[in-house]
Design goal:
By secondary structure, this protein is mostly beta strands. Helices cover 2% and strands 27% of the residues.
């Protein structure tokens, strides 16, 4: 969506950072000397942090608080600040055309990384023919061992594995 340079925009979702991923691409028309824009998002208790990475997630992770640690003239696209410790919680980042390596960003709000997340109870469903439950030892072949955290897992071609944990 287009924005007018030199302005600060507040983007508000009813439930805070209510998206899994957002991709930001700086227009080729943006000139390095154009004024930046600042995007400010409301935050909620369901999001604890935000990952910002270049190249739509395939590049470097951008550090939090770079927005307040750099001088205004040195800010580039992706410089951000997650205000998670205040009563009014926000996430803000800069967009400008100064740095080629930050022109394609992935913004990913994270949930439940420090706190305790309450998982919704999964209703038991009837399996269709060929489906396997992750939690069922019989789904894992001859050794019948359900993978544990840290195990390397291979889902064989043709398996229809349902993650029920």
């Amino acid at each position: 969506m287009p924005f007018v340079t030199g302005h600060r925009y507040r983007i508000h979702w009813a439930a805070g950072l209510d998206f899994d991923n957002m991709y930001v691409e700086v227009s080729e028309k943006w000139q390095p000397d154009d004024q930046p824009i600042s995007l400010v998002f409301n935050f909620t208790e369901t999001r604890e942090a935000v990952n910002m990475t270049t190249e739509y997630g395939a590049g470097e992770q951008l550090m939090d608080k770079s927005l307040i640690e750099k001088s205004t003239g040195d800010l580039v696209t992706g410089d951000n600040w997650v205000r998670n410790e205040t009563e009014i919680r926000t996430f803000e980042f800069i967009v400008n055309g100064k740095e080629e390596s930050t022109k394609k960003l992935k913004v990913e709000p994270l949930i439940c990384i420090h706190g305790t997340c309450v998982l919704e109870e999964v209703e038991e469903v009837a399996l269709e023919e060929g489906q396997r439950l992750w939690s069922d030892p019989a789904s894992w072949g001859e050794d019948g061992k359900v993978p544990e955290e840290g195990d390397e897992v291979e889902i064989m071609s043709g398996w229809n594995m349902l993650l029920d944990l």
